[in-house]
User: Fold Cupin type-2 domain-containing protein from Halococcus hamelinensis 100A6.
Amino acid sequence: MSYHVIDPADLDPTPDRDADRRAVGEAAGLENVALNVYTAEPGETVPLKYHYHDEQEEAFVVLDGTLHVETPEREYTAATGEVFVAEPGSPHRAFVPADADSGVRAVAVGAPAVDDAHAYEADG
Assistant:
């Protein structure tokens, strides 16, 4: 058996990301689920640009602020305490608008923990 207590603030942010990403799942050695904590300021994207996954189910649990998520059909908002879920094959782009009054802090959970993200080009 193995247990972990991890403070995301103790982890180095992932380089080359728009928002601050702390890879908690990697630090814990998780193999079946991706677990990341994001802090994004106005104008930043969480976590990737517009994308979709082949297999991975993805959920964003909003801890503080409001997360905006663009999809081909509409824009969703998830406020503190709410969860946005994207099923495999569902294009989405999570972000904080540039004109927002504050940033967002969210936990992103993806399973299985596969690198299957593909860029999505929105029409227009």
